[in-house]
Amino acid sequence: MSDAYYLQLTEQLRHLIDQNAVHWDGKLPAERALAERFATTRVTLRQALAQLEGEGLIHRSNRRGWFISPARLVYDPTRDAGFNDYVRAQGRQPRTAVLKLETRAHVPAARALGLPDDQPFHHIRRRRYVDDRAVLVESLWVVPERAPELLDIYSGQSLWGLLRERWGHYLANRSIRMVSEALLPIDAEELLVAPGTAGLNINRAILDDQQRPIEYDEEHWLHDSLCISVELSGQQ
Amino acid sequence: MSDAYYLQLTEQLRHLIDQNAVHWDGKLPAERALAERFATTRVTLRQALAQLEGEGLIHRSNRRGWFISPARLVYDPTRDAGFNDYVRAQGRQPRTAVLKLETRAHVPAARALGLPDDQPFHHIRRRRYVDDRAVLVESLWVVPERAPELLDIYSGQSLWGLLRERWGHYLANRSIRMVSEALLPIDAEELLVAPGTAGLNINRAILDDQQRPIEYDEEHWLHDSLCISVELSGQQ
DNA sequence: TAGTGGTCTAGACCACTCT
DNA sequence: GAGTGGTCTAGACCACTAC
Fold it and tell me: Could you tell me which residue ranges the HTH gntR-type domain spans (chains A, B) (predicted)?
């Protein structure tokens, strides 16, 4: 079973990529050109490319082609360093685009924070980039009482920094969940990738030091752009 | 773009699965039967099934067919409750099969623990099940000086329990990494799934309270069987 | 406008599972 | 032995990107 041609192809493509990464400037030749070079059809070639995509070695952008994936961003969800800080700390360039600002109810946020289903939230939808590649979209759902004028003043900065500096909120209790997912068409479109692309979904429910609900967020990352790292010391 | 037929198919399949899960006993009809029912080809049908597989709703076993995936196991990598304990705590049935016991060098383990590349380790390879579904394979690399007779006495129980009870080791410092992956043919075969199936790779490097290296392990989970959960309280 | 990736058709053979 | 999923062929059209 391991002698399937598409699996041999993945090995050949791996070597080809290693040797030509710089020369190609990160972009692979067209599928039809690669299929011809390896004397096979586009279907089989795409099966091999999909395997490498699953491994995180390459990725697709829209209809623009296949690209070699940059190194994964190392991310520790147990620390609350802002996105901008830890991206820069790894020598990369962060960027944020705000996609939507509104106030409305959202059942998953309400459930996660123990609030009634019709509880309204300030909703911030934003897309974040590393070195100009869009790597995640996220929705933040903030309890309006905790940050009343949030939507008037928000413009892409760190939300946690804002909550702490302007409203003095202390993000004491965090409940984090991570599951792999296939990006839904709506999320995929905002990340400029094909629907069904593998992703990682990270949710957080955050309460303050008096157990008052503050915020709930849902992140959708491209699966190949992330390495989750947790360092623990002391007793369990 | 969202009107692609295979995306409409995923919706229809979702409903079909919801309504017939019990009746089918968890196994979907044959691909050819489904393709005929939806008046399309196997290629397009499989594209829809692959989307649902990526979402974790269904999975494949070997050449046996498509099955509805059970609920994800919730797993907190920051706690050191053993696999058997937290599986049972969620009302599921754990099982472990030992695949290999040997002593040899392993460069990734050596690097992660700060030891020379030719450092030998006691190696335990095991496959773990939840409710009789194989959900992960893992390799454990233990520094022999810390547990000399390990391979003579090991028979599938909790390794961490053994290290604590028999050798008095205190697993104080843990460095954990998680990345999504596509299962390599060797791991896929041991999990009875097709090569390239989406997985989650979890690595741990463990030192004791005096910073002495004890153990390194590599887990390969089926991506749809896991929900990672971390609960944090107190200051950051 | 030319070329690309995304989608889809209509088959085929093989290795393997099930019974 | 029958049926299944895994793999592969040789095309095709369309929507979109890049120029």
Answer: 3-71
Which whole-number Å values give the CA distances from B13 to B6, B29, B46, B53, in the listed order?
Answer: 10, 11, 11, 12
| CA of A155, C1' of D15: distance in angstroms | 34
Establish if A234 belongs to a structural domain: no
The position carrying tokens 């909550």 is A163
CA dist., res. B208 & res. B174, Å (int): 9
Q: What is the CATH number of the domain that holds B153?
A: 3.40.1410.10
Residuewise pLDDT in 10s, chain B (236 residues): 447 899 999 999 999 888 876 677 788 999 999 999 999 999 999 999 999 999 999 999 878 999 999 999 999 887 777 889 999 999 999 999 999 999 999 999 999 999 999 999 999 999 999 998 999 999 999 999 999 999 999 988 889 889 989 999 988 888 999 999 999 888 888 898 888 889 999 999 999 988 999 999 999 999 999 999 998 886 54
Strand C interface, A 56-115, C-beta < 7 A = 60, 62-66
Does residue A183 share a domain with residue A106?
yes
| Interchain contact B195–A (C-beta under 8 A) | yes
Which residue's CA lies closest to nucleotide D8 at its C1' atom?
A44
Neighbour-count burial of A89, counting CB atoms closer than 10 A to its CB (0-12 exposed, 13-18 middle, 19+ buried): exposed
Protein chain B, residues 29-68, with a C-beta closer than 7 Å to any atom of nucleic acid strand D: 30-33, 42-43, 46, 60, 62-66
Shared domain check, B214 and B104: yes
The three-class DSSP label of residue A11 is helix
Q: Is the pLDDT of residue A3 over 80?
A: no
Query: Measuring from the CA of residue B43 to each C1', which nucleotide is nearest?
Result: C8
Q: Is A208 on the interface with B (CB under 8 A)?
A: no
